[in-house]
Amino acid sequence: MEIVAAREPDVTSAADCLAAAFADDPQMAFFFSGDPAQRQDLVTEFFSILMAARLALGMPVLLLKSDGRILGAVMGYNTQRPEWLPAHRERWALLQQRQASMASRFERADAISETYKPQEPHFYLGVLGVHPSMQGKGAGVALIKAYCDLAERDPVSAGTFLETAQRKNLAFYERCGFQLLGQGELAPRKPFWCLFRPKPVRDGN
Hints:
Elements (H helix, E strand, L loop, with lengths): L1 E4 L5 H11 L4 H6 L4 H21 L4 E6 L2 E9 L8 H13 L3 H15 L6 E8 L8 H15 L5 E6 L4 H7 L3 E9 L2 E9 L7
Parallel strand pairs: 4-5
Antiparallel strand pairs: 1-2, 2-3, 3-4, 5-7, 6-7
Protein name: GNAT family N-acetyltransferase
InterPro entries: Acyl_CoA_acyltransferase (IPR016181), GNAT_dom (IPR000182), Trichothecene_AcTrans (IPR052523)
Pfam family, one: Acetyltransf_1
């Protein structure tokens, strides 16, 4: 297995992998309510748009591959937050038309995130997913380490910020060096946690 930078031809396979990884994720269920079969299609398109948009902007997107097969992915933003290109904004608008409540639900998640995210420049880890066949085998740890290494090598970044709606993920992220900053609720009894992994302080820095 190897971790490599993603390329545009990887988008479709990576989106399928992430949709499988997030099949039972409460955050995806919150964003995309309704029929489970339709939700899977929406979630796949969601990840496809995110990855295509970030690749076009030169943002960090890493893949876990084995024999050419994509088994996991991690992506987000570096210390910059550039505007999406028009083609990706159009795809996002079309996705919103298919899910009436999507815009307000994303606004709710963003409001919680804004409350707790660091003020210093930092990397944002927006998506981390591993195919179900690889979960519990160290793939997630490898991906998150590779991503956080990018943040730690960036001279401007103070560390890596992320959110999760999975309670079971908290212990995993804490083992990976993340600290809990705070939490809110996407909806009643739907918690949403914000965490940060600060850049290690090294002698001479």
